Amino acid sequence: MSLITSVGRRSFRTRLLVASVYLLLASGAITMVVPFMLMGSMATTSEGDFREFKLVPDYWTDDRSLFKKVLVDAAKLEVSSVWGGHDGWFAPVDMMREDFDSYATMPEAKRKLQANDLREYLDQVCPPRYKRPLFVPNPDSPFTARVAYQKWLAAKYGTVGAVNQIHSDNASTWQEFELPEEIAYRRLPDTPRVRDYRTWVESLPANRTGLYTADADVFAFLKTIKVPEDPRLPHGADGKLIISQITFDDLQRAPFTEADRQKFFVERASLRFAKIDEVRAAAAWKTFFMKYPDATPFALTTLMPTNPKHATLWARFIQTTCPPEALGLDRPEDGWRTFLLKKYGSLDQINVAFGTRYAAITEVPIPTLPFLYQNFLDHKGAVRFAYLTHNFRTVFEFVAVHGNALQNTFWLIVLSIAGTLTVNPMAAYALSRFRLKESHQILVFLLATMAFPGEVLMIPGFLQIKSFPVVQLLGATLCMLLVALMYRSLRKFRPFLRSIMALVATALVGLIVAPQVAGVLGISTSVSLMNTFWALILPGLASGYGIFLLKGFFDSLPPELYEAGLLDGASETKMFLKITLPLCKPILAVMALGSFTAAYGAFMHAFLVAQDPRMWTLMVFLYEFQQTRTLPMVMASLVVAAIPTLIMFILCQRVILRGIVIPTYK
């Protein structure tokens, strides 16, 4: 029967009340759905945009926002600031889509020409010492160089052991092989590992290859000093000095002084790319060895020596004695400008081809950002798809490859459901069919177990699993048999005295005799169930609330069915299987669903009693995954973990509704 009559529905106040109720319900639904939608959208973000907290990330539809993500992953922000000429890029959130207008609006023919020229330079002319892999800073990027390097090693050597033997390493998985660190103040040692690394860098395609840039060191240095205001330095349209556009060539002339240049080489310059004018530094070189009489003199070289001891003295000479006018840097810009002059013939022809107005060849930069933007446009569909799916693929691969999380979780769910549908119905059937005087007290005891939160039972449960009393349980079973025998043999005594005597005998056997016998035989009275399925399943095998709910349902079944079964000669087991269970399928389905949810989402108990990684369940594995990952990866793992529960909710809505309605029958 409807709560509101058809006549009452015509009232404006009633309609307003109904509309308010629907509005309240809709608001509640939105507050439930929006957080999950936000979690799902953040799972598709990365280091470049996850702090924006948008339901629909901009890069889904906007190309420049997508390129921003690529740029954040490609290099450190300090280097990207120099490429883009923006002082304000302190964090990814500071990078606006408008900052890329100059590259996005550049005539396509000019941008493609610059990109093709740089690709030709990288592939055919550029010396290997300048090359660097892109996509190194963010290990969670879909294009991370770390994974590409590991795949290259796997393709070359085949096994982890073969790489360990060549590299003198002790890795156990491919994921443990890291990229050698590029150190600014010394050369990489000539080892098999470094030779493999340099070979891999040479094999990278141009769009995955970066170049050493001294301008990033200059930018970092200038942020530590007061830069003089001078019209010869680059300024923005608002007249403000742009420090990120000041190059190493600018540092070599006024308004910067020799002291500034000397300080730059001491504090920031990459000494492995330092260059010394041997003629201008000859006298200072002799003076240097007079200061260090214990050092063995050797011939001064233009570039850093390969001998480690000589390289140390050479670097110390630059930082202490070398005159500033003799110092320079070995940079890829010099080779790039020579390449352009050889290809186009003159600076004027370069300006015509690129659509620029450079006054001197030293003003021509390496067009890294136009090159990256053009490569991005050529593959933007694949790039967008990679960012949309990368986090989810990473989670799936981690769970599938590492350990037995999926297998353990599957068997835990199956065994938990089987135990729930076996123990609870049998206990409830016994309480319902055999009307004991103590049934009320037993039910109160079962419901009392719900008064203690899981956190309170956690430590006792852990201690019990760690030292499970097997002998005591066997002794208790024997004692139960002893009680039954004694109760029958002592019929001449009153029932109360018989019960007391049987309990005393039981206590003596269980608490004293059984442990003593186990000690004499050298048998441990307890075993550890840690890192076993028993530890995961036993604590949740019986449920006080489940038994209470099933007993109430069994009590509502017609007693005539059991009377007819008895007349037909059916045993209790047969009536339980043929009459009771078929009639209580709805409530059993609700309990099975609850058991699935509890087993699938169990974390803390599984984390405590199954500390062996081979026994970790999915939730424990995802927790381990989240400890070393970025927030978008964490969100992706939560979405993946929610998928099975969401599927069960969609498929079992009727069962869930029955679980809400059935307990109200009583």
Description of the molecule:
With 666 residues, the protein is an all-alpha fold. 61% of the residues lie in helices and 2% in strands. It is built from 31 helices and 4 strands. A two-stranded antiparallel ribbon has the order 1-2. The chain has a two-stranded antiparallel sheet with strand order 3-4.
Give the SSE layout:
Elements: H1 12-42, H2 63-74, H3 77-84, H4 101-104, H5 108-125, E1 131-133, H6 145-157, H7 160-167, H8 192-203, E2 209-211, H9 214-222, H10 248-251, H11 258-267, E3 274-276, H12 282-291, H13 308-320, E4 327-329, H14 332-344, H15 347-354, H16 368-378, H17 380-401, H18 405-433, H19 439-448, H20 454-466, H21 470-489, H22 495-520, H23 533-537, H24 544-555, H25 559-567, H26 572-583, H27 585-601, H28 604-609, H29 618-626, H30 631-651, H31 653-661
Antiparallel strand pairs: 1-2, 3-4
Task: State the share of residues found in helices, binned by percent.
Answer: 55-70%
Order of strands in the sheet with most strands: 1-2
The total strand number stands at: 4
Distance between the termini: 21 Å
Radius of gyration equals 38 Å
From the 3D coordinates, which CATH architecture of the domain at 405-468 and 527-664 would you assign? Orthogonal Bundle
The coarse overall form would be elongated
Q: What is the fold-level CATH name, i.e. the topology of the domain at 405-468 and 527-664?
A: MetI-like fold
Query: Which structural class fits the helix and strand makeup?
Result: mainly alpha
**Low confidence ranges:** 662-666
Tell me the CATH superfamily of the domain at 405-468 and 527-664.
Answer: MetI-like
**Any idea of the CATH class of the domain at 405-468 and 527-664?**
Mainly Alpha
Sheet having the most strands: 2 strands, antiparallel
